[in-house]
Amino acid sequence: MEFNLARVIAMVAEAHPERAALIHRGRQILFPDLVQRYRQLGTALNAAGIGCHTERSELDGHESGQDHVALYLNNELEYLESMLGGWAARAATFNVNHRYMADELAYLLTDSAAKVVFVNSMYAPNLAEVLSQLPKIELIVQVQDDSNNELLRGATFYDDFIRDREPRALDDCSEDDLYVLYTGGTTGMPKGVLWRNADFFVGALGGSNRNEGREYDSYEEVVEAANRGTLRWLTAAPFMHGAAQWIALQALSMGHTIVLPDVTDRYDATNVLEVCNRESVEFLQIVGDAFARPLLDASRMTQVIPQSLRSIISGGAVLNSELKEELKQQFGGVTIRDSIGSSETGVQGSNVSTKEQSSSTGDFEPAPGSTVVNASLSAIVDAGSDEIGWFAMSGRVPLGYLNDAAKTQKTFPVIDGVRFSVPGDRARLLNDGRIEVLGRDSVTINSGGEKIYAEEVENAVKNHPAIYDAVVCGRPSERWGSEVVAIVQLVEGVQAPESEIIEHCAGYIGRYKRPKAIIEVPQIKRSPAGKPDYRWAQAVARESSKD
User: Are residues 186 and 39 in the same domain?
Assistant: First the structure.
């Protein structure tokens, strides 16, 4: 059975009209009201000529037959409504990083061939700066916020856009309709990943009967699964990041409630804790160390420890084992679910740590379809092999990259008749079937003929008590070709000699992997979703070599 998310959530709403779908700043949106609003949005988009113009059966994997809608929005109710409203109209929405400068924004909106932009008023001046370069944009829908910026010329306010619209029927919404997610672009230019709705529902949202280890047979079975009760989930990461979208859509498809922080344009750990406490949140989603460390600092400073919190879910970046232990201790033994995956694979594995279990970093219980293929992309490696291969996923994976046939073919190879997604992470398949993930090949450092994985060194450096945050990269070296450099942000008020930090790494990694230099900076530059900016790190490392 194949599914469309707009239809799934509409059926859940019909079965559970009393449940809250969204909570933000004390305002509750019940499931039927959410569905009403996104169906009205679907009608409004169709009336503007936005929708599907070519069915999937006539297209190659890297092609789209739908109009594309940019979501240049903060973490507010309108973001999720717009995603679902896009599907209701049979259009395809995609994420926009609201920290992009003019050139980056123009690139993204051009590469995506966006026809529509939904934009928060606070970002309207940024959009206005590049509109002359974007002749394909036909419609701008502006979401009012505290900035009180004026309406862009030719734009329509969001509430006016959907007001008095008849709700669109969802009968023709297809399992083939696209979910589009742009990659972060921290190591290269962002690319649009194309998922069929049906594949996205299973591969990224876990839409299946887990008790029986099979996919759902019908929409009715999905609704029946939602009968088990409702929980409250808070997404701390921005919706411009796939992990936050996936958690929110997964929760809604299960009939659960999404709670949004009061502060919507950035990660405010203190506010996240306050809202978790106020709204009795049970599941909190974060992104790795960059979110965990401020969360711990905020809780210790304010003494806010939400008593309802049952689980912290991390994905999209490394979550260090020592931070996992600190989170469990600070928040009363919560379960830590560390997930791994990518825009191109969905969820590939998880590492679950409870109060009774010790934590580890970088090893995962594989999800169905998750494995390691060899370096030549010709076979799956044997469990326990010393070979370092590629972390791969088969089954419900994306169609490809928007308008890039060559990269689609490279990332989605066919091995022994099976189509895999291999986005570029190096890994080992361990004896017990778990997968040890070493890191992204694009940021691997080749030093003295040895491959060194940046994330492995970062974990070692961050285990030093004086290190608040760190990112590792290579810089040119006459002796080694490339040498390992750690750029670090120290704990406020704490000092640590370079030699001490380097020697500390000896307890975690081999001598040849240790940093050759430590560069201290006031703050590590990361994306709003917590991902390290390796291009920035490499620029810092190169500049330091001139000193």
Answer: yes
